[in-house]
Every structure is written in structure tokens, then in C-alpha cells.
Amino acid sequence: MKPNKTLGQNFLANKGIIAKIIQAAHLTGAETVLEIGPGKGALTFELARAAKKVVAVEKDKALVKLLMQELAARNVSNVEVITDDILKFLVSGFRFQVSGYTVVANIPYYLTSALIRALLEHEHQPYNIVLTIQKEVAQRICAKDGKESILSLSVKFYADPKILFYVSRGSFFPIPNVDSAVIEIAPRPGKQKADPDAFFTLVKAGFSSPRKKLASNLAEKLSLEKPTLERVFAETGIDQKARAETLSLDQWITLTKHIK
């Protein structure tokens, strides 16, 4: 079956990498795994061997039919295949009757940012997330202080991300134009340190013009007066000449609490 370019389909074909992903997920055999975009099922069948149940959400109806036929042929009974767009599924059809679940998936690159945010902000947050994504995006998510972005802060607000290993483009079919990385995103349970709406409003304002100073962006986008900003920066110990990318997560949280 020919991959659908419009759906960003690049099937993981390297069995050694698939084995490393299964190992990295630390599955015990007792959990439910949510797989996004199972494709032809190369990862799905290995997940089925390692987990109690796999819920595989696939948008491509032709691939769903192919996967279900293969599952039946191999007598695999612990995989539930759902035909849906994953973002719509998370909003309307997500009803896992389990105490917790893990996400393990090789996802289309275009879906990365929206999917991670949807998972981390969901009412039923996963225990752990292991994703194969574009290498450069993984590096942006795990950026250190001084190179933060809206994406990295959005992830770090809810979870602790780390790159587990890199995957060469030759491990996929068809071969993509970029290399990949397997990233683990471990959600932090419990209440967040700042109000999410206030935090993300502030971050988006701060990054509205990345080349400008943070204070200028906040003044422009949030209509904050100069004396107010000077006081806030003085109280938080943040340099008034700082740019948004140089602030750490903790500094953004502190700033959020000081700007009402």
C-alpha cells in the first residue's frame, strides 16, 4: 500500500528501532497503550505483545482495513482499532475505563505540537508519553534556558521531556527528508504552579515579536504601563532587557504570578 503524503505517512520499518521504543516505554504487561497512527502495524504488534491492551487510532480508512485484517490473521485480540482523527478523538471519543494509560506512537510531524498539548491538557492525562518525532522539534522541546520557545514551555509547564535516542531517516518508508528522535514526556501529576490560562496568555504575548525585548512585547500585547512592568521585573529579579527565549520555566511562572 502506497503511503499517503497528505497525512504525513512515513512508516517505521526498522525492527531494531521498534524494539528500542518498546524497551524505552517500560511496559509491564498490565497497562493500556494509546497508539496514534499505527499505519501498517509494525509497532502495534510489538505493543500488543508487551501491553495488556492497545487502542490504535488511525485516520486512514484503507490502513484501518488492512490493519484489522492482519490482526485477525495473526489472532491478535488485545488491539482495538478506531477510525478517527486523533485530535477529535481526544475531545469527543476518549473514554478509557482504566486507571491510567501510556502513549507510544510514531506520529506525523505536522501533528506534533497540537497533539502533545492536547494530551497534556486532557482531563485523562497519560502516565507517560513516548513519541517518535522530528529531530529538530524534539531538540526544541528539550531546549535549555536561553533557547526556550512557546512549544518547549508548553510541554515543560505540564511535564518533564527528554530525548531518549535519535533515529536516522533511513529507518522509515518512504524515507523522509529529516531525521527523527524518540522523546519521552513524563507528565507531572497534581496541580500546576500557575494558572494555565494566565501562563499561556503571558507566554504568547512575550513571544509575539521574538526579536523585541520581553518588556516591549508585554507592554504592547497586554497593555501594561512602563511603571508596572519596571516594578514587576524588579520584584522578580528578571532583567528588563531580557528576551522571551532567555527566561526559564520557573521565571515565567514567577512572572505570571506577579502580573495580574
Automatic annotation (TrEMBL):
It comes from the Bacteria. GO terms for cellular component: cytosol. CDD domains: AdoMet_MTases. InterPro entries: KsgA/Erm, rRNA_Ade_diMease-like_C, rRNA_Ade_Mease_Trfase_CS, rRNA_Ade_methylase_Trfase_N, rRNA_adenine_dimethylase, SAM-dependent_MTases_sf. The keyword Cytoplasm applies. Keywords: Cytoplasm, Methyltransferase, RNA-binding, rRNA processing, S-adenosyl-L-methionine, Transferase. It catalyses: adenosine(1518)/adenosine(1519) in 16S rRNA + 4 S-adenosyl-L-methionine = N(6)-dimethyladenosine(1518)/N(6)-dimethyladenosine(1519) in 16S rRNA + 4 S-adenosyl-L-homocysteine + 4 H(+). GO terms for molecular function: 16S rRNA (adenine(1518)-N(6)/adenine(1519)-N(6))-dimethyltransferase activity; RNA binding. SUPFAM superfamilies: S-adenosyl-L-methionine-dependent methyltransferases. Residues 17-189 form the Ribosomal RNA adenine methylase transferase N-terminal domain. Its EC number is 2.1.1.182. Pfam families: RrnaAD (PF00398). The keyword RNA-binding applies. S-adenosyl-L-methionine binds at residues 10, 12, 37, 58, 85, 106. It is an enzyme of class 2 (transferase). It is found in: Cytoplasm. PANTHER family: DIMETHYLADENOSINE TRANSFERASE (PTHR11727), DIMETHYLADENOSINE TRANSFERASE-RELATED (PTHR11727:SF7). Specifically dimethylates two adjacent adenosines (A1518 and A1519) in the loop of a conserved hairpin near the 3'-end of 16S rRNA in the 30S particle. May play a critical role in biogenesis of 30S subunits. This is Ribosomal RNA small subunit methyltransferase A.
